[in-house]
Amino acid sequence: MAMSTEAKPYIIDACQYCNWSPEILGQLREGGVDAISVTICYHEDFRETVENLIDWNRMFERHGDLIMPGRTAADIAVARKAGKTAVFFASQNPSCIEDDIGLVEVLHQLGLRVMQLTYNNQSLLGTGCYEQTDSGITRMGREVIKEMNRLGMLIDMSHSAERTTLETIDLSARPISITHANPNFWHEVVRNKSDAVLKALTARGGMLGLSLYPYHLKGGSECAVESFAGMARRLADMIGIDNLGIGSDLCQGHGNGIIEWMRVGRWTKAPPTMGLGAPVLPPQPAWFRDNRDWGKIRAGLVAHGFTEADAGKILGGNWHRFFAASFEAA
Amino acid sequence: MAMSTEAKPYIIDACQYCNWSPEILGQLREGGVDAISVTICYHEDFRETVENLIDWNRMFERHGDLIMPGRTAADIAVARKAGKTAVFFASQNPSCIEDDIGLVEVLHQLGLRVMQLTYNNQSLLGTGCYEQTDSGITRMGREVIKEMNRLGMLIDMSHSAERTTLETIDLSARPISITHANPNFWHEVVRNKSDAVLKALTARGGMLGLSLYPYHLKGGSECAVESFAGMARRLADMIGIDNLGIGSDLCQGHGNGIIEWMRVGRWTKAPPTMGLGAPVLPPQPAWFRDNRDWGKIRAGLVAHGFTEADAGKILGGNWHRFFAASFEAA
Question: Superfamily assignment of B12-326 in CATH?
Fold first, then answer.
């Protein structure tokens, strides 16, 4: 397929959390990935999140030939021109702002562009998807939504409970995102999303990033790309093609301990029951082992009736447009 | 009234937050106060709470003739014998444990004996009384209740929403407290409590500390001691005499800024609407200006038909028994 560099659609992944190494960074380049949004906080407080940012500063310093910091959508074109991957910062938990609304702007100044209002549990802002009761957005949550809207920090509700998600879609003056989840109509689990959420999200201009994490896939690690592409087809028919992207949730290079930590954090002395079995990092599906496999997703989508142009939107074009609209100050 | 030192009932206040000075500490002695529970955290995180404990360490060092640290109920007798006031530590917010269940034991080791599961807002543990929606106890909340029960840290729901309070009464293996609030049947405000809560609390052996803070009093600063005593009489008829104490919520020596900080903390950029008007520290009622006035409360209760023995239970006897049961490890 002959396309000019200008015309070639972007490849953008809205959610990765790898155990970053020169090898994995090299795979980003091999796969032609223009931008990734990386998790810089799961359970960390502000100071610990800053420590993760220090690690990233070192990484940019050492591997400036492969990656560069991403702050605006325009950085993605800069990165492509330089043959690098732009790295945007995202937090999966508002633990990084602790109980301090002033830390939203401080973290924005440090490069944070995406933040979940909850991880799995109740946060100070809203309810996570594994709580028994979902009370929606709190007093502090309303204030933080306004502040994120003002600054141009994208709201992400991937791990939030349904009512909290629907309220946020309404309360936010700007479109929000679910960066990494799949529809429940395809594979019904706590972390995937109802039709109601998907329709409300996209009706307001919000984006869904399809997840490639085995727990979110029908058939788990055995999921076939045909099944995934079929789900994307049905979804595009339901909510349109312009609000779909990928948020792979790729957790490459970690041991199983990382999964236990994600579930347990510091909030419990005993591992919780989550209906997910032992805390084990499942193998990736054969068609997305790592960042070298983006062509296989593209091929799967095209084989399932998507045009090249539409496949390009899903693989990155939509996120590029959405990042441009989301990361500017109000 | 001639009583031996042994027989004289204890005076114990389950909630004070003064701007501590030698003058106010001296008033505790003038008033014959045997023990107070002082707030060491409203919005502080762990490190900031430790800073408040450092202030208390200095206070104990400088004013060891007036006060001593309280850790067990037995310390109250020790304090009386030495002519001092025992000072117990309480937190009005679980912000001091941040998101770390391990900090419950650490703070217990540092002397914390009472902790509210919420202040006014949603916490990581449960819902505060000023939230629009009350979702009860969270996943982390269940774990923290177990940990507080194990260690002998008393649960306090003074600032919690109704469902969250009722669930905690059920979930806790040990009786809990509402250290500073009044009944809504007397003065209906967000911070006072329904009959349902008061009955459930005391049916399980829990304690209510009657508040002397003007916003919680019928008539505010103009409230007469007769009205207060009449409320106590009605309450004693409803829930019995053995589960009533005083938690004055005395905030002596502060400027109005302290009230704004209590409401705003760090969670909002704009002062919230709370139906409470401007953030002003109201004048104390004439019959409880400061710690020298405990005799006036006693006189008011006796004038309203309480026996001396029953007035003594309310002024401290009940808290003494309850502290003894609550501050031992399970």
Answer: Metal-dependent hydrolases (3.20.20.140)
Record: contact B122-A130, CB cut-off 8 A: no
Q: What is the dihedral of CA B68, B72, B78, B82, to 10 degrees?
A: 10
Residue among A43, A106, A135 with most chain B CBs within 10 A, to mutate: A135
In the numeric block, the tokens 């983006």 are attached to A294
Cβ contacts of B132 on chain A, cutoff 8 Å: 136, 139
Residue spans of the domains in chain A: they are 12-94+177-268+275-326
Predicted complex ipTM: 0.88
Q: Which of residues 246-265 of A touch B (CB under 8 A)?
A: 265
- A46 within 8 A of A329, measured Cβ to Cβ: no
Q: pLDDT (tens digit, 9 = 90+) per residue, A33-88? A: 999 999 999 999 999 999 999 999 999 999 999 999 999 999 999 999 999 999 99
Q: Using a CB-CB distance cutoff of 8 angstroms, which residues of chain B are in contact with residue A167?
A: none
Residue B183 pairs with which residues in a beta bridge? B193
| Length of chain A counted residue by residue | 330
Architecture of the CATH domain A12-94+177-268+275-326: Alpha-Beta Barrel (3.20)
pTM of the predicted model as reported, rounded to 2 decimal places: 0.93
Tokens linked to A268? 């419990």
Helices B46-62 & B102-109 angle (0-180, nearest 10):
10
